[in-house]
Design a protein that fits this description.
Elements (H helix, E strand, L loop, with lengths): L10 E9 L6 E7 L1 E2 H12 L6 E5 L2 E2 L3 E2 L2 E2 L1 E2 L6 E6 L30 H13 L4 H9 L2 H19 L3 H15 L28 H9 L4
Parallel strand pairs: 1-9
Antiparallel strand pairs: 1-2, 3-8, 4-5, 4-9, 6-7
Amino acid sequence: MADLGEEENKEMVQINLRTIGPSPPSRLWVPSPVKVKELRKLISVTSHLPIENMRLVFRGKVLHDSEDGDDLLGQLHDGDTVIVAIKPKPPAKHVRDDFDDDDDEDLKFKLPESTSRWKRRLFFVLRDKFRLPDMLLMAIFSLTLKIWAAIVLWFILAPLAHRSGVGPLYILGTGFAIIFYNLGHRQPGDASAYSIFNENFRELPGTLNADRLDRDIRHGQF
């Protein structure tokens, strides 16, 4: 299977399908060149096999749908044989083999389908070439550009604050800024959990305070 970069001069060819298991060999007409993910869909529809657990092998190599975010194309010829393997469902968690990487594939961080092309390329470079762990990738791609700009600006200003002798105040101010940024916004009419921010210091129903404890004790509820 070869990456051709673009689909041109398509023709219909007949290939052989050999499914691992009791299913007999079959033949299938497919366009050539064809995207691997499209080939997988064709085989799934014609052979009634689950596409999510399907593995395709061609000339001793497992076929992947994409590489570095780009769809892979393959050139097929009449009489070529593609081996179809259906990956079994993973066993229960208490009997799962800790060394089976395929079973943990669903736990890996994946980009949403709506992710832009440059983000996908960056993701595959960081994952495949720099081998960054999934937790770090999740942290990197879960942040917005605005937050990343604020982080970069913070590291640029940090040495200046240190040289000016206000490093502790800079860190303290950063902590307060993070707290206020994550406070959220209340809708008009909503009461705060802190009575000091409410009109007439109104408390939320069920709030436990000294007055309520004293009242409950006087009524013999303790």
